[in-house]
Amino acid sequence: METNLAVLIDGDNIPSAHVKEMMEEIAKYGNPTIKRIYGDWTKPHLNKWKNVLLENAIHPIQQYGYTQGKNATDSAMIIDAMDILYSNKVDGFCLVSSDSDFTRLATRLREASMKVIGIGEKKTPDPFIVACDKFIYIEILKNNSKESTSDKTKEKDSRKQNVDKITPKVVRLISHTISDVADEDGWAFLGDVGSLLQKKQPNFDSRNYGFQKLTPMINSIDKFEIESRENANSKFKLIYVRNK
Questions:
Q1: Digit-coded pLDDT (tens) for 14-30
Q2: What are 31-67's pLDDT values in tens digits?
Q3: 77 and 180: one domain?
């Protein structure tokens, strides 16, 4: 059964560029049955959003700023999220913002057994990131978009400029996670490793490091072994990893 998602976008806090890539990413995790964006549409800084709303069937919600310096958009989005939660029409939420004000909302939705996916820029504060089941950086989607329209040389240059380095801390995280789910011989099913990595660190994504999948990322680190095994129930092989 497909997961129905409510996509709520903080228009004041998220750039309109790459919205198509963002919606394609969200579709990987479920069916976005509700798509709303919040902001004061009388303000000129939201004009760029207006051009892409119809193309992506995103419903704009008008929210006037009643008081100087106060973000009324946040309040409107939070109230709508709770209304949607109690309507029992969705199985999860996608909160698109880089604002830590949505940390408590993400926590509350998860307390109600909702799946919560966050999307925002790398400047997003850690409390909001860890409050989500999964957090995806918009910069990843920008990189993918650039790669699809550039030659190989530009792709490599773009990766060097935009991807994070695989630090010893990241290697330790992967190593400990493999140990956590490994069998007596030290081998761990890669699917289990990926799932546990996501739980430990919601913003963990191999694309942050320039790899489309977890397998090539782990394969690039000389601390791990990889083994392919036949799968009796499928033509696809099972990938196992262990610490060297």
A1: 888 888 899 999 999 99
A2: 999 999 998 888 887 888 888 888 899 999 988 765 4
A3: no
pTM: 0.84
- 63: CATH: 3.40.50.1010
Residue 173, domain CATH: 3.30.420.610
Q: What is the mean pLDDT of residues 140-169?
A: 62
Cβ-proximal residues to 178 (8 Å cutoff; 6+ apart), any chain: 186, 188, 193, 224, 241, 242, 243
130 and 227 together in one domain: no
What is d(CA 36, CA 12) in angstroms, rounded to the nearest whole number?
13
Give me the domain span that covers residue 111: 4-146
| Residue in 77, 109, 114, 75 with CA at minimum distance from that of residue 96 | 77
